[in-house]
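Extended Data, panel c. Modelled sequence:
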Amino acid sequence: MSLLSIESYSQTFATDFTASNCNGSSHNLFSELDAGKIIVIGWTMPCATCAAPLLEVHNAVLNYAISNPGVVEYWVTDDFANTSCSSVEGWCASNGITNATYFSSTTINMNDYGGAGMPKVVVLGCSNHKIYYNKNNTPTGQGVSDAISYALNDLASSCQLDISTIKATNNEFKVFPNPSKSVLNIEFKNKSNEDFLIELFTLQGEVLQQIPLDKTSVEVQQLQISTSALSGGVYLLRLTGQTGTETLKIQIDN
């Protein structure tokens, strides 16, 4: 079975940077988030396979940018800043990504958000600099729309909403509470009606628990696993199916 790697990281806060865009204007991420903006960042090589997902994200962002002027912005940047600004802008224009701020800067580092995977998209917002969406390889307009909607609600709630239940991936794989003590609740949507395997393992790769799940007509899958016997620390929870794998970091506070 060939799997497409899809990673979702449970890191919850952004990393600050200052970068000049392709027009020479300087942007400090935290200053703009503190001012109430929601920033969507998309990384590209640029590559042919990056075009459709980043255009889909562009269109989702544009809908919110029109209804929330001056609040929601799309920043598109070269992955390792080894492509010139003119090439980034030309690639975006040829693929319909026209309502964005363009960068080619080493300070906008995708590794601050879990690692590479083209294209990669994050949604950032609020004065406490939260990450609402973090997706490698297959970001979607719907996923970004959900994240922006949640971020707008969070802004309206003085940034007090719980981000541990944000829909993070195509299968909307989520765990709660996170951090956990005795019980971890797992929920995801089996949109493709396929077999899945859930694995709990250490950061060193030791598998602690495996739960196979057969095909079912029930779309929303829910289960619990006990974490009371685990030592306090960070672990990984992985969901594997025929179409990909998704991994979340979890914190155990025993």
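The radius of gyration is 19 Å. This feature is highlighted in the accompanying rendering.
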